[in-house]
User: Fold this.
Amino acid sequence: MSDPNVDMSDGATGRGARTLLAHVASADAAAWRGLATAIDDFFLPESHRIDEQTRIGLARLLRALVDTVEGEIRDHGVRQLQVQGEAELATALGAADGVFAALSESGVLRDRELMAELIAQVQQELLASGMPVQAHDDPERPSLINRFVQHPDRVLAQSAMGVLIAESRRRSLPEAGPLPQTDLPAELHHKLVWWVAAALRARVAATADLSASDLAALDRVLAEAAQRSLAAHDEGDRVEAAVMRLAVAIDAQPDELPELLNEALGDRRVTCSPGCSRMRWGWNTPWRAALRSMPAAGGCGSRCAHWIWIGRRLPGSALR
Assistant:
């Protein structure tokens, strides 16, 4: 005959103990990883560190880029699901947590090409903002880019206005929230869009009880939203593309380039400098020779500083 006083809770207690031990082991492993990171950070040479301004700007830019793409994909997906009568699924997608933390923890945002582009953009803006404005001899004389905007040549004027618009868009980085557009090269925008779409899918699937048909509908609208974002992205709207169009419109002669370069840098328009020079010399001498002799970029050295370094070595440059 069985004893009614037998304790039947041993199994549950054992499972609880195993769960607790697993949590302790996970916390211990996380603590060791944190210690290893702190040690690596302590012994990192100063030449390999990014300064605090760059770090803050990079964090804001990266977060804004993810928020921008996520907002596009999420909003379009929610609208499509509502149109299709999938109200519950639309609610689940709209209420899902943001994906920035998940993407950061996954490591995909450590992509070298993406980070190289973002660090260069941030340091370029910091360099431009830190340069002194060079006063013109005639205080009534408009700046270089504004003179081009007012030029009677329609192609030149429109190209200059395109540079102003592209620069304004890139510099309008909000404290929080999305950007007007990512302003990334096409291949990097492509990567970011699919990373965000995949992370959103994982967020919704993890927090909502979805059937196979629900998952199929979610996959469909997220893929459509991602394709929509890719189709809307125009690499020709980037600052670099606008600068190259302006350089073609200017068609500066070799003896005009030093003064153009000097005035562009005097107006703190760092992005205009390499475009004007590159259109005349391409990658041939003395451009290629200057690149070969350019000092090494330690750590996250600004590529814009290198453009200035090259500019000072162009024949007849006033930057010497």
Summary: DSSP finds 14 helices and no strands in the chain. The chain has a mean pLDDT of 78. The first helix runs from residue 10 to 42.
